[in-house]
């Protein structure tokens, strides 16, 4: 009744457990070890694979008998006499040209008379140049005999150099194990031949890893072609993909272990958990599932939808279709893409994979994703709003954004509106800029409030909308009467109309000579804004922001427009929901955010989450800088107590408790990171330039060069232009300049698919974030030839990412203390991340790196500490480096290996 174990079946078949496991792995069954149990279909497979033995169960009896001496007699094709004999048998068979590259290395698995039962799917790869001679000769790995049908960009190689055998130092010369062993025919697609052992060699196969790597990637240096592994490793078997199931090969470790991990670890857990399911389905799969690259995956019918989140991984996909993630790694590999099971992939990759397997991939929109995320916490904001009845709802203030062409008077208008506030008159005016303010006006004898977003212009409006925040109820379109409708006037009205936001037109500067308000009315009719006096439904109000004239009329028009067309009511009796309209880090108060309550009531003490920031409301202030305890719908308040700074347009909500708020924030952050990582794959990086080139996606490598001094920029540019790039590709420097890398540089890089090279400079504030979000590759160098080397290597398709500096923290020098004992001590405020003792640092002055010392001493007050987090002050000693000034930024770094993607 009990399921048979591997060693029992092996015994029955007269082979060693190892051989059996290896064979099963070839057949796509992931078996962990000799004592693993086998399901019936797998047993059947095993028997089919060793028919001779199975046919003669008597072999069982024979099995123990033969002595090693019998080995040489082993005929290819005969059932193997016994485990001991195997190595010998292998030697006999070694030269056999027909041998698959299957089992490299010295293990019996390879030597098995597999010729007899080469599972169809792994029939010899298209190219099997006898190379994988498993013998002990290290021979073969000469670059020349490893045809390279299609150079692979080194880019997406998950096997980093640390896997690559005993080589002294990675060369940009492309130690990419995948470059060469790629099989011919880029996409074998279906089963069999295509099995490009490339990566397979690595995981687990004895000798595979070390040998596989040097095989060719090194080009001129076939380095560690480890004896025994020889070239055999390179075309390793797909068995390697079985990593999760149980790296079958004994000894497939050592250096190669790390390699295996790249796949093995990834798929490991799920594979285990799913094992029994898998086994249950095995029979079905066997009949119904097609085999791609030796793995069997149930197919969709071409229209089966699969919903995936942005930045999903192969493991996520595998879970949806209930297969082993490692199988998807294999299939994807056959489609010409390398990815680990836990790596975030972009939509295109999933689409390619989905269509290969008969699924339609639907990537969940960010909004839906967030909705689902909140639902996990029992929050359904839409349902909450729907459930509200008339009794729950109370009137709230309309929220207004001022837009218009540059210099038409937006800022001035907001100023005069502030001054027109009846309450301000009493309270002494609006004293602080908090990103939004509320004014009161008397309308039809009733005191009414209107909330203004204090960031004029449609850029902020659009940025918030892009984040899914519907903040504005009404737009005031400012048009200068002396200037008329201008391009940004039209842009602004298009944005408002697209968002379905009613418009009130403020015809400004009517005090000016030459002002022609009638002309504005007439011009705007072309854009569907027809003034009431012309029979339309848009209110036009003539104002002079400078003189404060017409402001009351404008406010009245806003209220009339609101009352005419909008249902401005909200339920104040629930937890607050709203939007962050502005936020920044304040020296004394930490993260400070202006939020606008859309519904519910926000109270001091509430646990809130805004975008990926969370915290507890410690205090709230209004635009008069008065502390407030509650904020009702329509009310903007400044909130103190968030642990980090949200972005303008991030929605906020009150959660049940701190823990929930934190968890929501963390989940959002993880989702965002995954989405970013996926996006990052998309844009071009130096590593995948060559691939993009091949695919005809680019013909030009666009570069932007920034440096600390013009001489360096010129030198770098000259040197770059001298690189011999051949005919296929053009190297263009689309922009160069002196100073820090700015947002503009990144934007330019985004548009032109360029790579930014920084020489002795750093990105300006927030620029790194932007580049990460946009997937722009920025590289920083302090030695010109390193930059040249990278570019050259990338042009040749051999760039190997190595280590990159990752910023860990940044601190601003606020004060300098002279100490005779310690030299200059920088009194700093940590602005971002954390500062750790002994960390490598850069001192940046006005965006230029002026020195690279190490954090020698780190103190909080009198105490030596090992790290100081953002928001705290500390004293930093930089050893002998004393050239510091107030205002310099000390950035700390760690060296991290760039993940291959
Ligand atoms: N004569 C006159 N000048 C005005 C009036 N309103 C604004 N101005 C002037 O126009 C210029 C531009 O005004 P801003 O309020 O800065 O214009 P803006 O639209 O906010 O400009 P940007 O912020 O650059 O987009 C300033 O010099 C104002 O003093 C007005 O009603 N009459």
TrEMBL record:
Species of origin: Demequina lignilytica
Cross-referenced Pfam families: EF-G_D2, GTP_EFTU, IF-2, IF2_N
Location within or outside the cell: Cytoplasm
Pro residues bias (residue ranges): 131-146
Positions with biased composition (Low complexity): 51-77, 85-95, 108-130, 162-177
PROSITE patterns membership: G_TR_2
Sequence positions that bind GTP: 404-411, 454-458, 508-511
Biased composition (Basic residues): 271-280
Keywords assigned by UniProt, alphabetized: Cytoplasm, GTP-binding, Initiation factor, Nucleotide-binding, Protein biosynthesis
One cellular-component annotation, GO: cytosol
A single GO molecular function term of this UniProt record: translation initiation factor activity
Annotated function: One of the essential components for the initiation of protein synthesis. Protects formylmethionyl-tRNA from spontaneous hydrolysis and promotes its binding to the 30S ribosomal subunits. Also involved in the hydrolysis of GTP during the formation of the 70S ribosomal complex.
All residue ranges annotated as the Tr-type G domain in the record: 395-569
Family: Belongs to the TRAFAC class translation factor GTPase superfamily. Classic translation factor GTPase family. IF-2 subfamily.
PANTHER family attached to this UniProt entry: TR-TYPE G DOMAIN-CONTAINING PROTEIN, TRANSLATION INITIATION FACTOR IF-2-RELATED
Gene3D superfamilies assigned: 1.10.10.2480, P-loop containing nucleotide triphosphate hydrolases, Translation factors, Translation initiation factor IF- 2, domain 3
Stretches for region Disordered: 50-306
Identification of the protein by name: Translation initiation factor IF-2
HAMAP family reported in the protein's UniProt record: IF_2_B
């Amino acid at each position: 009744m009990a399921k048979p174990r591997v060693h029992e079946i092996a015994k029955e078949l007269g082979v060693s457990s190892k051989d059996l496991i290896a064979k099963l792995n070839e057949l796509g069954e992931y078996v962990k070890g000799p004592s693993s149990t086998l399901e019936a279909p797998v047993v059947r497979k095993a028997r089919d694979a060793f028919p001779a033995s199975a046919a003669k169960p008597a072999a069982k009896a024979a099995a123990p008998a033969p002595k090693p001496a019998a080995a040489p007699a082993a005929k290819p094709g005969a059932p193997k006499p016994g485990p001991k004999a195997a190595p010998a048998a292998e030697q006999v068979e070694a030269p056999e040209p027909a041998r698959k590259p299957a089992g490299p290395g010295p293990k019996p698995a390879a030597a098995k008379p597999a010729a007899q039962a080469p599972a169809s799917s792994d029939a010899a790869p298209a190219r099997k140049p006898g190379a994988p001679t498993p013998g002990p000769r290290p021979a073969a790995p000469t670059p020349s005999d490893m045809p390279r049908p299609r150079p692979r960009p080194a880019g997406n190689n998950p096997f980093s150099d640390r896997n690559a055998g005993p080589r002294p130092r990675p060369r940009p010369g492309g130690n990419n194990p995948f470059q060469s062993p790629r099989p011919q025919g880029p996409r074998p697609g279906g089963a069999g031949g295509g099995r490009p052992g490339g990566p397979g060699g690595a995981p687990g196969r004895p000798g595979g890893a070390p040998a596989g790597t040097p095989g060719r990637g090194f080009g001129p240096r076939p380095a560690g072609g480890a004896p025994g592994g020889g070239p055999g490793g390179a075309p390793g078997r797909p068995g390697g993909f079985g990593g999760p199931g149980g790296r079958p090969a004994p000894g497939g470790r050592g250096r190669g272990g790390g390699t295996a991990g790249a796949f093995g670890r990834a798929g490991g857990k799920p594979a285990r958990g799913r094992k029994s399911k898998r086994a249950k389905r095995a029979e079905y799969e066997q009949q119904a599932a097609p085999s791609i690259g030796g793995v069997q995956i149930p197919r969709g019918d071409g229209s089966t939808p699969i919903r995936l989140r942005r930045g999903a991984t192969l493991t996520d996909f595998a879970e949806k279709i209930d297969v082993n993630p490692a199988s998807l790694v294999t299939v994807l590999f056959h489609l010409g893409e390398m990815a680990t099971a836990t790596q975030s992939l972009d939509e295109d990759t999933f689409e390619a994979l989905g269509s290969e397997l008969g699924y339609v991939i639907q990537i969940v929109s960010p909004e839906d994703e967030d909705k689902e995320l909140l639902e996990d916490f029992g929050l359904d904001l839409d349902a909450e709003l729907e459930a509200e009845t008339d009794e729950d709802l109370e009137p709230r203030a309309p929220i207004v954004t001022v837009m218009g062409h540059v210099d038409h008077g937006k800022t001035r208008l907001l100023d005069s509106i502030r001054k027109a506030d009846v309450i301000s008159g009493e309270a002494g005016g609006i004293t602080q800029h908090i990103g939004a303010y509320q004014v009161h006006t008397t309308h039809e004898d009733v005191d009414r409030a209107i909330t203004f977003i204090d960031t004029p212009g449609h850029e902020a409006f659009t940025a918030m909308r892009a984040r899914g925040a519907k903040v504005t109820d009404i737009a005031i379109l400012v048009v200068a009467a002396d200037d008329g409708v201008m391009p940004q006037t039209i842009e602004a009205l298009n944005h408002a109309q697209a968002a379905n936001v009613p418009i009130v037109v403020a015809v400004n500067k009517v005090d000016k000579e030459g002002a022609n308000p009638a002309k504005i009315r007439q011009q705007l009719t072309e854009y569907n804004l027809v003034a009431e006096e012309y029979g339309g439904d848009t209110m036009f109000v003539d104002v002079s922001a400078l003189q404060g004239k017409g402001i009351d009329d404008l406010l009245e028009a806003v209220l009339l427009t609101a009352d005419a067309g909008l249902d401005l009511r909200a339920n104040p009796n629930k937890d607050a929901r709203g939007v962050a309209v502005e936020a920044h880090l304040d020296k004394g108060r930490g993260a400070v955010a202006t939020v606008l309550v859309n519904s519910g009531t926000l109270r001091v003490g509430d646990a809130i989450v805004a975008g990926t920031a969370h915290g507890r409301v410690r205090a709230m202030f209004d635009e008069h800088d008065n502390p407030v305890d509650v904020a009702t719908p329509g009310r903007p308040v400044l909130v103190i107590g968030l642990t980090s700074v949200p972005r303008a347009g991030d929605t906020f909500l009150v959660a049940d408790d701190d823990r929930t708020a934190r968890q929501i924030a963390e989940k959002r952050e993880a989702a965002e990171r995954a989405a970013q990582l996926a996006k990052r794959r998309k844009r071009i990086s130096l590593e995948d330039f060559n691939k993009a080139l091949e695919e005809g996606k680019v013909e030009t490598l666009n570069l932007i060069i920034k440096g600390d001094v013009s001489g360096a920029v010129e030198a770098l540019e000259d040197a770059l232009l001298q690189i011999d790039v051949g005919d296929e590709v053009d190297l263009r420097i689309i922009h160069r300049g002196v100073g820090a890398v700015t947002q503009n540089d990144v934007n330019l890089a985004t548009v032109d698919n360029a790579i930014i090279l920084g020489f002795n400079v750093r990105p300006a504030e927030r620029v790194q974030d932007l580049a990460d979000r946009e997937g722009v590759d920025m590289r920083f160098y302090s030695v010109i030839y390193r930059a040249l080397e990278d570019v050259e290597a990338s042009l040749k398709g051999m760039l190997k990412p190595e280590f990159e500096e990752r910023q860990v923290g940044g601190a601003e020098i606020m004060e300098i203390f002279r100490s005779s004992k310690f030299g200059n001590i920088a009194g700093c405020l940590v602005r971002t991340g954390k500062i750790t003792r002994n960390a490598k640092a850069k001192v940046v002055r006005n965006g230029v790196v002026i020195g690279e010392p190490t954090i020698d001493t780190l103190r909080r007050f009198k105490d030596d500490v090992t790290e100081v987090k953002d928001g705290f002050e500390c004293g930093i000693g930089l050893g002998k480096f004393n050239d510091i000034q107030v205002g310099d930024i000390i950035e700390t770094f760690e060296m991290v290996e760039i993940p291959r993607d």
